[in-house]
Write a structure and sequence with these properties.
Layout: E1 2-6, E2 9-13, E3 26-33, E4 36-43, H1 48-66, E5 77-80, E6 85-87
Antiparallel strand pairs: 1-2, 3-4, 5-6
């Protein structure tokens, strides 16, 4: 388990890889943004490497997006599947 404290935000995460798998499809992101901060929990649907790649892609996208100032036209990501990003 990892616990990090950054200013007023303290968070922790526990990770578990399923037996027989080398990677988990679960990822997280906690990062400062121009407006404050971004906290994301990502579940790449499925198991193993395919789910992990989907989750990693979502975290990369969120990380880049979180560094930019929000615009009225920006739409937050609300879910992820191995085939597509689901926008609200």
């Amino acid at each position: 388990m990892e616990t990090v404290s950054a200013g007023l935000l303290e968070w922790g995460v526990a990770e578990l890889v399923l037996p027989g798998q080398t990677e988990s499809g679960d990822r997280y992101l906690v990062t400062p943004t121009p407006e404050g901060g971004l906290v994301a929990v990502v579940d790449g649907l499925g198991h193993g490497a395919e789910a992990a790649e989907a989750a990693k892609g979502a975290v990369r996208s969120l990380s880049v997006t979180g560094k930019r100032r929000s615009s009225p036209s920006s739409r937050p990501v609300t879910g992820v599947s191995p085939a597509r990003v689901v926008w609200s």
